[in-house]
Write a structure and sequence with these properties.
This protein is an all-alpha fold. The chain is built from 14 helices and no strands.
C-alpha cells in the first residue's frame, strides 16, 4: 500500500513544465520516464514515507526499495536509492552483491548513477575497502554506468588521502574511454580531488594532458587557479 500512496502523492505534485525541461539534461539512449516532480518535493515525500518503514529490518526495507526500483518513473527509483542511503550505518559486506545488481538492472541515467554512488556505493566502499579491487575492474565493463560509477563513488573517499592513489589509478584506467559521460565522471572526480589535493591533481593533469580527452580535462581543472588552467589547456 505504501507504494501506491507514494505514487498518488507524486502524481499530485506533477509539474508539466518541469517535466519537459528536465528531459534536456538527459541524452541517454534509453528512454527515461519522468513524472515531472521537482527534487525538493520528491525528497520531502521520501522522508515522509521512510518514517513509516524505518522500524523494519534492513532486509525488508531493501525489498521495498527493489519494488520501487521496478516502477516506471524516475522519481520512484530515486526514492529507493535515497532510502538505501539512509541505511548506510547498517551496511555489511554481503550487501555488495545486491548493490551491484541494482547498478546493473536499474541505473540508466547519470542522475541515478551519481546519486547511487554518492549515497550508497561510495559510503559502502569507504566502510569495506576490500572491494576496491572489484571497483577498479568496473573500469573495463561494457556497461557505461559501471565505468562512470567506478570514478564517481571515489568522491566519497576523498577525505582520506590514502585513497588518492586509487583516484589516479581509476583515472588512468578510464583515461581513453570514448564515452563522454564516463569522461565527465572521472573529470568530476579529479575536480573534487583538486579541492583538497590541488598540487597533486595539477601534477597529474599536466602529466596526462596530452592524451586526456578535452571533456575530462575541462572538468578536472574547473576549480583551479586561472594560471593553472592556462598551463593545463596549452598543447
Amino acid at each position: 500500500m505504501i507504494l501506491d500512496e507514494i505514487r498518488k502523492e507524486l502524481k499530485k505534485n506533477v509539474d508539466k513544465a518541469y517535466q519537459e525541461s528536465i528531459k534536456r539534461f538527459f541524452k541517454e539512449d534509453q528512454q527515461i520516464n519522468f513524472l515531472g516532480v521537482r527534487t525538493p518535493i520528491v525528497r520531502d515525500i521520501s522522508k515522509k514515507y521512510f518514517s513509516q518503514i524505518k522500524g523494519k529490518s534492513k532486509k525488508e526495507i531493501f525489498e521495498i526499495c527493489e519494488q520501487l526500483l521496478e516502477k516506471e518513473y524516475s522519481e520512484e527509483q530515486g526514492i529507493a536509492f535515497g532510502w538505501a542511503a539512509r541505511l548506510k550505518d547498517e551496511f555489511g559486506p554481503t550487501d555488495f552483491k545486491r548493490f551491484k545488481s541494482w547498478l546493473k538492472k536499474y541505473v540508466n541515467n547519470w542522475g541515478h548513477c551519481d546519486g547511487f554512488c554518492l549515497g550508497v556505493l561510495g559510503p559502502f566502499v569507504l566502510m569495506f575497502p576490500e572491494f576496491m579491487g572489484e571497483v577498479k575492474e568496473w573500469t573495463k565493463s561494457k556497461n557505461r554506468w559501471f565505468r562512470r560509477a567506478s570514478a564517481v563513488l571515489m568522491i566519497s573517499l576523498l577525505e582520506d588521502k590514502k585513497y588518492l592513489k586509487d583516484v589516479f589509478k581509476i583515472s588512468d584506467l578510464l583515461m581513453m574511454d570514448q564515452d563522454d559521460l564516463v569522461q565527465k565522471g572521472y573529470g568530476w572526480l579529479l575536480k573534487e580531488a583538486s579541492n583538497k589535493y590541488l598540487q597533486e591533481v595539477f601534477a597529474y593533469v599536466m602529466k596526462n594532458k596530452a592524451k586526456m580527452p578535452r571533456t575530462a580535462l575541462r572538468y578536472a581543472i574547473e576549480k583551479m587557479h586561472s594560471d593553472m588552467k592556462k598551463k593545463a589547456m596549452k598543447r
